Amino acid sequence: MKKQRGIALITVLMILALMVTIATTMTGRMTASLLRTEGLSFSQKVYWYGQASVEFSRMILNNDMADSSVVSLDQLWATPDMVFPVDEGTIAGRLKDYRSCFNVNAIALADKDDVRALPVRQFQALLEALDVEQYTAEVVAESTRDWIDKNDTVDGSQGAEDRIYEARGVAHLTANNLMVDISELRSVQGVSRAVFEHIKPYLCALPVATQLINVNTVAVDQAEILYALFKPEFNFSIEDFEQLLEDRPTSGWATTNEFLESPMFIDQTIPEDIKSQLSVTSEFFHLYGVAEFDDRLMALKLLFKIEDKKATTVRFQYAGIE
């Protein structure tokens, strides 16, 4: 009898242990499910806050473009680091005119028969103005041309095509196409991490091969961009362009002809190939947006294109926190 009671007790204890194990497992799974649901809820809120920054920026651009024939730094879109409080978080956004930076893809327009074509010389001039050593600047400029152009021929003495990149530790080929993002420049021969981080703020990679610099939105501390456009043909200094931008009208120049009537250009004959690179308006704007909710962050980058005075999305990607 005692033996049977002992067996029964052991059986009860085993069943109890099994029930505790099942209950613990179910509790763990339920907790994980609740946390996952909570995490998804937070992620959804952060996502929609991020989308809010996109739509708010779009609205600002649409309003600015609707009633102006020029793009200038006194418009609402140019407000630095806009931050707006929302329920349990914030939405922040920063718009930049992507016609105020040097479009590396414009090098694709370089005449294939001209080893030292103007776009290549302008890019090299910009690099040198940013204190990149002359030899490195030449290598980067010519290698960028080879990276973008459609052929497999090294066009300049310092260029690089597929055979150079195939010999690397991580072998790859040239794109033979326009760069999709300026980060792609990091793969080009001669562009070290230090060089890239230094020159990146002055550059962009637009989905077109045209070089148009909006003289109304180039920052005073980035006067090297305008300097580089003129450097191959003129002996202006960076300081000349800094002063020119300091004296820029509050609402910008109304036309490029008005810009070229500035005192520093008096008695100068500006070639058409340089004139054609100047503008007082823009069709590309870059948004860097950050949404924060309950200490969770989401950053995004987006390229707007203005068509018929309306901002449309050209490119979107999630990004790291800057």
Short summary:
The protein has about 325 residues and is an alpha/beta fold.
Describe the structure.
Among the domains are: 2-98 and 283-319, Pantoate--beta-alanine Ligase, Chain: A,domain 2 (2-Layer Sandwich), CATH 3.30.1300.30; 111-199, Orthogonal Bundle (Ribonucleotide Reductase Protein R1, domain 1). It has 322 residues and is an alpha/beta fold. The N and C termini lie far apart (77 Å). It is built from nine helices and nine strands. The mean pLDDT is 86. The longest helix is centred in the N-terminal third of the chain and has 65 residues, at 2-66. The protein is globular.
How is the secondary structure organized here?
Layout: H1 2-66, E1 82-86, E2 89-97, E3 102-103, H2 118-129, H3 134-148, H4 162-166, H5 193-199, E4 203-204, E5 213-214, H6 224-230, H7 238-246, H8 256-260, H9 272-275, E6 278-279, E7 284-293, E8 296-307, E9 310-319
Parallel strand pairs: 3-4, 5-6
Antiparallel strand pairs: 1-2, 2-7, 7-8, 8-9
Helix pairs in contact: 2-3, 2-6
What are the segments in which pLDDT stays under 50 over at least 5 consecutive residues? none
**Helical amount:** 40-55%
User: What does the radius of gyration come to?
Assistant: 28 Å
The overall pLDDT average reads 86
Major sheet: order of its strands? 1-2-7-8-9
Q: Give the CATH topology of the domain at 2-98 and 283-319.
A: Pantoate--beta-alanine Ligase, Chain: A,domain 2
Shape: globular
